[in-house]
Amino acid sequence: MSTHVRLLPFGGPEGKRAHLITDGTPTRLSLLADTIENQQIEAAAVLVALTRSVLEGPGNPSAAELHLFLERLLDSTTEVLNICESRGQRIPPYEGEESEE
Fold first, then answer.
1. According to the model, what pLDDT value does residue 88 have?
2. What is the maximum alpha-carbon separation in the chain?
3. Which residues contact 51 (CB under 8 A, 6 or more apart)?
4. Which of 29, 87, 89, 92 has the fewest CB atoms below 10 angstroms from its CB?
5. With the CA atoms of 23, 28, 31 and 32 taken in that order, what torsion angle do they form, in degrees rounded to the nearest 10?
6. CA dihedral 14, 17, 23, 25 (to 10 degrees)
7. Torsion over CA: 86, 92, 96, 101 (sign)
8. Residue 19: in which H helix or E strand, if any?
9. At what angle do helices 63-89 and 28-56 cross, to 10 degrees?
10. pTM here?
11. What is the pLDDT of residues 12-37, one digit of tens each?
């Protein structure tokens, strides 16, 4: 039986990273993680479009508005990087290539 470890898109207690260990078959938790990852990616795309429209639109955004956008962009980028790391860990190495672990 093969063991699969997945970094989840939400943290464990005290903000620590949480992992799911399965045999590779879909579970309620893995499907929930898929849904949350998709929502996080969609939210990031919306935030990028909104930020672009504010920056390219008429008028100048206030410092408070820019600060809010930067905070949300940082949160969103962190979430998307977490997704990338999780998905990257699940990609098998190329044939003949050894795993980095």
1. 87
2. 60
3. 69, 73
4. 92
5. -130
6. 90
7. positive
8. strand 19-22
9. 140
10. 0.80
11. 778 788 999 988 889 999 999 999 99
Token pair for 82 = 């977490």
Q: Which residue from 6, 3, 2, 12 is spatially nearest to 89, judged by alpha carbons?
A: 6
**Degrees (nearest 5) of the Cα angle 25, 30, 36?**
150
C-alpha 31/C-alpha 27 separation (Å) is: 6
| 33 CB-contact burial (10 Å; exposed 0-12 / middle 13-18 / buried 19+) | buried
What does the block give as tokens for 36?
């949350």
CB hemisphere CA count around 49 (13 angstroms): 6
Q: Tally the residues of the chain.
A: 101
- Give me the residues paired with residue 20 across strands: 6
Tell me the H-state helices in 10-92: 28-56, 63-89
Beta bridge partners of 6: 20
